[in-house]
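User: Just a sanity check before I run the rest of the batch. Below are the structure tokens for the first item. I only need the designed sequence back.
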């Protein structure tokens, strides 16, 4: 990578946790309250917005979701993919955890807690939908927020850019098949046409638009790109919050009748985040990966691309579905859980490096054959 490219990667990954991101859980909670109240006070208005559809896609929500996703996808630098070879072990951990472990363990946790442990306290007609929402979360590893978590755990900027670019490329091809497989295994009907339409609408097209705009902005220079990202970043979060207000205007009655639903849905999501983070961190340590690389490798699997999960849940199952509610719970607990995990990664650096150093020596220095 050239000196200019290295500086670009460093600047893109060096993103502080802004006011919106730091208090995202607070904003989400306020949106739950606002949406619930709106649905009770003005039910006719909420229903009117819900009827603005084309091909089962709600127009206001579709626009909001594009505004939400495109700025985040603009941070992806596919030109950095050639750096993958330099960090092959950690990239391997990232891909293994994100695509071979995370979706399947989320489906398992959903089956355990939603269909069995909490089933007596949940509405029976929504059990399949809740599990589907959890599967959508599990099949969508984080994209944009990884830059924030990487910065907070002092992660390697070049590696962060590379792994996010590769992960998004894999997501284009792997998201729909994995979701369809897990829905089928869970005995949930698979709407194939709607699923692939969702991938095109909320991954392929926004990614193409984001990369086009990114190249145009970078053609004006890096300062122009960074200035534009600083200005449109809050717009993305506002679009997310507006989507949640609309969502909870439909979900409000269910929340009032079953206030513990959110807490019960949060249990498998929380356990999943902790397990995936621990697995990724441990595997990187066992393979002798540097701590500055293991941090972002751990964070990308532990967090979720919740914007995509929310969007697909709404398209597949509707505003008032348990799937949409389950994905929103993921948004609610994302920031506090990830901040705690960042603190754990930073606090355990000494322990990590002691084990990683020994593992690295074992890889580099082969054993002498016995005589």
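Assistant: Here's the designed sequence for the first item:
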């Amino acid at each position: 990578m050239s000196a200019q490219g290295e500086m670009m990667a460093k600047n893109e990954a060096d993103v502080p946790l802004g006011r919106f991101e730091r208090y995202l859980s607070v904003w989400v909670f306020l949106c739950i309250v606002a949406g619930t109240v709106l649905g009770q006070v003005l039910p006719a208005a909420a229903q009117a917005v819900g009827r603005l559809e084309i091909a089962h896609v709600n127009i206001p929500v579709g626009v909001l979701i594009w505004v939400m996703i495109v700025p985040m996808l603009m941070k992806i630098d596919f030109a950095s993919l050639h750096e993958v070879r330099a960090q092959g072990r950690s990239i391997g951990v990232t891909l293994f955890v994100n695509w071979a472990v995370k979706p399947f363990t989320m489906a398992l946790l959903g089956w355990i807690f939603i269909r069995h442990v909490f089933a007596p306290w949940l509405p029976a007609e929504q059990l399949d939908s809740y599990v589907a929402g959890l599967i959508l979360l599990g099949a969508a590893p984080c994209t944009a927020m990884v830059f924030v978590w990487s910065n907070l755990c002092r992660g390697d900027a070049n590696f962060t850019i590379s792994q996010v670019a590769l992960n998004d490329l894999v997501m284009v091809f792997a998201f729909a098949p994995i979701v369809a497989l897990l829905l089928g295994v869970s005995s949930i009907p698979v709407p194939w046409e709607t699923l692939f339409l969702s991938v095109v609408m909320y991954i392929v097209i926004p990614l193409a638009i984001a990369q086009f705009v990114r190249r145009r902005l970078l053609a004006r220079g890096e300062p122009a790109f960074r200035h534009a990202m600083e200005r449109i970043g809050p717009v993305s979060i506002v679009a997310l919050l507006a989507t949640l207000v609309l969502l909870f205007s439909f979900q409000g009655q269910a929340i009032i009748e079953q206030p513990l639903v959110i807490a019960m849905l949060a249990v498998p999501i929380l356990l999943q985040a902790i397990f995936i983070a621990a697995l990724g961190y441990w595997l990187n340590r066992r393979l002798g990966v540097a701590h500055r690389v293991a941090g972002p490798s751990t964070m990308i699997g532990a967090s979720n691309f919740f914007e995509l999960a929310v969007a697909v849940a709404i398209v597949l199952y509707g505003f008032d579905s348990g799937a949409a509610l389950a994905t929103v719970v993921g948004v609610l607990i994302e920031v506090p859980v990830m901040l705690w995990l960042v603190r754990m990664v930073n606090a355990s650096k000494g322990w990590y490096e002691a084990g990683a150093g020994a593992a690295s020596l074992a890889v580099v220095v082969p054993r002498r054959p016995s005589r």
